[in-house]
Amino acid sequence: MSAILDEILGLVSRGEVRVSEHGYDEIDADQISVRDIVEGVLQATLIEEYPDYPKGRYVLVLQRDRQGKPIHVVWGIPRVSDSPAVVVTAYRPDPGRWEDDFSRRV
Questions:
Q1: How many CA within 13 A on the CB side of residue 13?
Q2: Whole-number Å distance between alpha carbons of 48 and 28
Q3: For residues 100, 51, 36 and 44, what is the CA-based torsion angle, rounded to 10 degrees?
Q4: Beta-carbon neighbour count of residue 45 at 10 Å?
Q5: Residue 98 in domain
Q6: 93 cis-preceded (ω within 30 degrees of 0)
Q7: In this predicted model, what pLDDT tens digit does every residue of 4-40 receive, in sequence order?
Q8: Which of 83, 6, 12 is nearest to 49 (CA)?
Q9: Domain count for the chain
Q10: Prediction pTM value
Q11: Which domain holds residue 33?
């Protein structure tokens, strides 16, 4: 597991979560519930880590919704503070661009 994802899990457990405006747009477009994202992070699988992103520390994780369908979520922690955990974006991965397990690009 990653230190960034560990920090995010701690923030989520304390209810320190925010969804970005872009995140809401993408979530709505792919008909994903915020509840599925927040609850699903506990079983998230790390795909990529971006510790030096200019706006903060980010991770791309694979999660599942309540029906077991895959969701990719980019979680971040703002550079200027240690809180909250931010849902930067979330989307349903395109099977044509990802391996069958949705954790590696084709």
A1: 8
A2: 24
A3: 50
A4: 14
A5: no
A6: no
A7: 999 999 999 999 999 999 999 999 999 999 999 999 9
A8: 6
A9: 1
A10: 0.95
A11: 3-91
